């Protein structure tokens, strides 16, 4: 599973593209475990604002991150296509990303990604698919923040 | 290949640990005055087993020491040395060294050579007392009573010496003076393919012969005939090419030899003859001595016939002889010990008992991950199996009832579900019983801890152990070891006084620490009681003030003073010793116990001693919880911490000047916590306590009580503990989470942390994340 899209220059990486508010983002499809409808979450005390709460995924308890809040973008108004993308980071952390809608899949060449932030930032780069500008998310950074609460608190 | 070797080595180390426990038990019994033959034999067997196993893995340090240990024990066994107090002390020390050597072999910390040498010397002085001829006798490793080979699930039967068809290694020749000149018996033995296909192994037979020789106080000379061995490229792995020639002492009866081959007589060629004449397989012998095939004595040398052609292919020889190990071409000597399984089932999660023994590279044994395997009483597994069978039936009947649509089907359904509930609980208990382990295994290790602490602190303390059969969950057993070690060291170092002081106080010179375990109302209670001077409260308070743990003008109750020793950074020892005094001890112990969902309390009587009580849950997986509503969500409060539940009128609450609210329940005042705002799930501003509030009075392990305001009490249920930390972080005030009947997630409250926060917090938020219950 190649989650670090900056390595493996020549290989095409299959990405899943989804929308959060106006903006589109993508993550490697191999790190996606499943996609679920949004269900009722259990609020967690002292959670950072971007954490919606905890859900039960067949016996595993995981937290759902509201990507709109996390990325600080205005979310679309409530729509029936909101889904939770369950992802697994390379350290084994499982969490859910609440996105407004899943758009499609795309093959992306890692060399096409324009790096916009230094290491340790969750939005690592931008990539063009046709006319659309798509943000590339670093799941490991998100998971790390979730576990250690770097940004929050 | 190295993987399978590692696995076998792992099995060996597991067995070593068991043998060391056996040894510890035996020596304790010996110390307790049980000097009968059985006890001494058990001790002997344990050391011998370790030695035997270590030899097959080429762990030389271990073998050497075990051998000396064994020799001393042999002196004890034969009655030449009496098990006096001093002798036992030497043996105990030797056991500790042996255990360290095992750890070293595992890849752990190296052993101080001086300590080994010291123990070795003292052991040698033990058996040096015996007569010279006797000691020579006891040096022959094969010279054991048969009893030493029985009932031991360990590769004890392997001795590198007598069965040495070591091709590469220089044969060891210790004790090789038992030559039998008077017409020895020669057995030629050539296995057929069918023998291996049956799963038998020529080696087992050779071991049988060797044992015969050992019984006759002699040695078997075994040589391997490789003359029928084809060149490497033509070797058919499944075709046996080897035959053996075994020379046994004259005293061995032919009948007993036939008995060895009883089961295989139809699948091999055997000839038994008197004298050292040549066997049928010795054709065209060049008579050239081959060092690869040399035995301790080369008296029958000419028989060993090797065609020059074969020489380069010598290494794979053993592999061809035994197809089972063909994957291990480097194997030079491979002797699989017969495995005698004990009555219980050994649930081995990995490591199939494969064949082989490998020389070389043994020194570089890497540190291994602790292997998770448990021994379970067969009966418990059977019980579980029965219950699972019941469950299958229950499910079937439930389905049948579910399909019925008549008047009383609903009632019937309720009845079935009820019985299913009982069954589920039974299964849960049965699984817990499978995971349960007696605490004895940890307690036994503590003997050594106390012994070492004593020698460092120059005190004489006896550790008395009670209730070692008390069973708790395996994870708990493992995690108890560190806190107990710490507490016992403390007890020796600080608790028990120096011998002179004890005598002056009219006590026995030898201190006594009682370590006991028992079940009490669904929890396990462990007490550590010393008969020392007790806690010097004035001193504790003085130090606490000096270190800034308490304010100088604080007035504390006796209990509070006693509990100060759990404060971080506290130490009463005026100087830092090897044992304790760095002030991290009891704090860490308390954290560890809390982390296990346990409580710790302390009582102390000046001049009489100190008692620590640990109370721990039996399992870490399930707890009885009270389901309460907080800010619109369901939360779980462990029932064990709830003292009472009641409705309180607002007029019974008082707001303190600092904004805190206290409540008086039957004249006792306690702080009131509104859970919803406390956990930040509701804005504190604008929240007002309702006229009539539902209140849970909870208590932490220190006895401090807090009243929690909740919206409603819904139910009481058993909940399965799920970790939050795996995919999220620790939440202050929450120990773990669980999944409710409707599939939603519910948080389990960390009562001790909540209680502590009311006394520690400064700004209305919970202070530090407290330790939670690990799922």
TrEMBL record, chain A:
| Keyword hit for DNA-binding | no
Q: What PROSITE patterns is this protein classified in?
A: CHEW
Protein name per its UniProtKB record = Chemotaxis protein CheW
- UniProt entry keywords in alphabetical sequence: Receptor
Top-level taxon of origin:
Bacteria
**Gene Ontology CC:** cytosol
Q: What sequence ranges are listed for the domain CheW-like?
A: 12-148
Query: What's a GO biological-process term for it?
Result: signal transduction
Q: What is the organism field in this record?
A: Acetobacter orientalis
The record, for InterPro entries, names: CheW, CheW-like_dom_sf, CheW-lke_dom
UniProtKB/TrEMBL annotation, chain B:
The UniProt catalytic activity note for this protein reads: ATP + protein L-histidine = ADP + protein N-phospho-L-histidine
- List, in alphabetical order, the Gene Ontology terms for molecular function in this entry: ATP binding; phosphorelay sensor kinase activity
Name all CheW-like domain ranges: 622-760
Q: Which residues form the HPt domain?
A: 1-105
Outline the extent of the Histidine kinase domain. Answer: 411-620
**Matches recorded under Gene3D superfamilies:** Histidine kinase CheA-like, homodimeric domain (1.10.287.560), Histidine kinase-like ATPase, C-terminal domain (3.30.565.10), HPT domain (1.20.120.160), SH3 Domains (2.30.30.40)
Q: Give the start-end ranges of region Disordered.
A: 274-303
Q: Per its UniProt entry, what is the enzyme's top EC class, as one word?
A: transferase
What UniProt keywords apply to this chain's record, in alphabetical order? ATP-binding, Chemotaxis, Kinase, Nucleotide-binding, Phosphoprotein, Transferase, Two-component regulatory system
Q: What is this protein called?
A: Chemotaxis protein CheA
Which organism is this protein's natural source? Acetobacter orientalis
């Amino acid at each position: 599973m190649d989650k670090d899209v900056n390595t493996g220059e020549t290989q095409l990486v299959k990405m899943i593209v989804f929308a959060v508010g106006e903006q589109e983002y993508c993550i490697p499809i191999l790190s996606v475990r499943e996609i679920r409808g949004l269900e009722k979450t259990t609020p967690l005390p002292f959670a950072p604002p971007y954490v919606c709460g905890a859900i039960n995924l067949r016996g595993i308890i995981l937290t759902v991150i509201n990507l709109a809040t996390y990325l600080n973008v205005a979310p679309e108004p409530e729509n029936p296509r909101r889904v939770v993308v369950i992802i697994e980071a390379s350290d084994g952390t499982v969490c859910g990303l609440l996105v407004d809608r899943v758009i499609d899949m795309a093959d992306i060449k890692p060399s096409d990604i324009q790096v916009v932030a230094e290491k340790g930032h969750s939005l690592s780069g931008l990539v063009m698919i046709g006319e659309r500008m798509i943000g590339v998310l670093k799941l490991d950074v998100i998971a790390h923040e979730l576990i250690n609460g770097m940004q929050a608190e | 290949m190295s993987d399978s070797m590692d696995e076998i080595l792992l099995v060996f180390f597991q067995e070593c640990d068991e043998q060391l426990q056996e040894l510890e038990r035996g020596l304790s019994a010996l110390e307790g005055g049980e000097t009968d033959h059985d006890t001494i034999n058990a001790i002997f067997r344990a050391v011998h087993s370790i030695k035997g196993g270590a030899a097959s893995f080429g762990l030389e340090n271990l073998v050497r020491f075990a051998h000396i240990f064994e020799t001393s024990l042999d002196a004890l066994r034969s009655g030449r040395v009496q098990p006096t107090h001093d002798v036992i002390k030497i043996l105990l020390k030797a056991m500790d060294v042996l255990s360290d050597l095992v750890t070293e072999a595992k890849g752990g910390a190296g052993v101080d050579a001086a300590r080994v040498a010291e123990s070795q010397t003292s052991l040698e002085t033990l058996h040096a007392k015996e007569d010279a001829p006797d000691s020579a006798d006891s040096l022959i490793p094969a010279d054991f009573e048969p009893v030493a080979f029985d009932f031991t699930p360990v590769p004890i039967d392997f001795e590198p010496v007598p069965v040495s068809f070591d091709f590469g290694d220089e044969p060891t020749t210790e004790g090789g003076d038992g030559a039998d000149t008077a017409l020895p018996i020669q057995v030629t033995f050539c296995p057929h393919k069918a023998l291996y296909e049956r799963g038998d192994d020529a080696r087992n037979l050779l071991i049988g012969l060797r044992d015969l020789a050992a019984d006759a106080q002699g040695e078997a000379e075994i040589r391997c005939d490789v003359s029928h061995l084809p060149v490497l490229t033509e070797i058919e792995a499944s075709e046996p090419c080897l035959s053996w020639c075994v020379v046994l002492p004259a005293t061995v009866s032919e009948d007993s030899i036939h008995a060895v081959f009883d089961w295989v007589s139809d699948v091999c060629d055997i000839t038994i003859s008197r004298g050292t004449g040549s066997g049928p397989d010795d054709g065209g012998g060049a008579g050239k001595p081959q060092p690869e095939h040399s035995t301790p004595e080369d008296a029958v040398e000419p028989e060993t016939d090797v065609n020059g052609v074969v020489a380069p292919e010598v290494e794979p020889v053993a592999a061809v002889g035994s197809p089972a190990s063909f994957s291990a071409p480097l194997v030079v000597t491979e002797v699989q010990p017969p495995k005698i399984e004990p009555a219980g089932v050994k649930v081995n999660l990995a490591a199939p008992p494969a064949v082989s023994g490998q020389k070389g590279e043994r020194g570089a044994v890497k540190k291994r991950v602790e292997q998770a395997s448990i021994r379970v009483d067969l009966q418990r597994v059977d019980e579980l199996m029965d219950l699972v069978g019941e469950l299958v039936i229950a499910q079937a009947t439930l389905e049948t009832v579910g399909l019925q649509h008549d008047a009383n089907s609903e009632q019937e359904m309720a009845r079935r579900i009820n019985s299913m509930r009982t069954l589920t609980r039974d299964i849960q208990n049965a699984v817990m019983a499978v995971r349960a382990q007696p605490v004895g295994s940890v307690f036994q290790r503590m003997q050594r801890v106390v012994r070492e602490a004593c020698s460092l602190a120059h005190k004489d303390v006896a550790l008395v152990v009670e209730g070692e059969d008390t069973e708790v969950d395996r994870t708990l057993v493992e995690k108890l070891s560190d806190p107990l070690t710490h507490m016992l060291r403390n007890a020796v170092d600080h608790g028990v006084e120096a011998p002179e002081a004890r005598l002056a106080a009219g006590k026995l010179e030898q201190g006594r620490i009682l370590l006991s375990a028992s079940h009490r109302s669904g929890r396990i209670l462990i007490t550590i009681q010393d008969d020392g001077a007790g806690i010097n409260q004035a001193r504790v308070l003085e130090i606490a003030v000096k270190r800034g743990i308490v304010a100088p003008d604080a007035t504390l109750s006796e209990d509070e003073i006693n509990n100060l020793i759990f404060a971080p950074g506290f130490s009463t020892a005026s100087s830092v010793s090897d044992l304790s005094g760095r002030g991290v001890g009891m704090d860490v112990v308390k954290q560890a116990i809390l982390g296990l969902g346990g409580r710790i309390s302390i009582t102390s009587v000046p001049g009489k001693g100190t008692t620590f009580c640990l109370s721990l849950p039996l399992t870490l997986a399930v707890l009885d919880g009270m389901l309460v509503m907080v800010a619109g969500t369901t939360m779980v409060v462990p029932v064990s911490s709830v003292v009472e539940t009641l409705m309180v009128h607002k007029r019974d609450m008082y707001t303190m000047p600092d904004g805190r609210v206290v409540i008086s329940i039957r004249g006792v005042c306690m702080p009131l916590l509104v859970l919803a705002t406390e956990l930040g799930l509701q804005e504190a501003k604008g929240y007002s306590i309702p006229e009539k509030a539902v209140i849970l009075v909870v208590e932490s392990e220190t006895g401090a009580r807090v009243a929690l305001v909740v919206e409603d009490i819904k139910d009481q249920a058993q909940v399965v503990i799920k970790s939050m930390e795996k995919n999220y972080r620790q939440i202050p005030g929450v120990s773990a989470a669980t999944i409710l009947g409707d599939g939603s997630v519910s948080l389990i409250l960390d009562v001790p942390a909540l209680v502590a926060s009311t006394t520690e917090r400064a700004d209305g938020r919970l202070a530090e994340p407290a330790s939670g219950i690990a799922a």
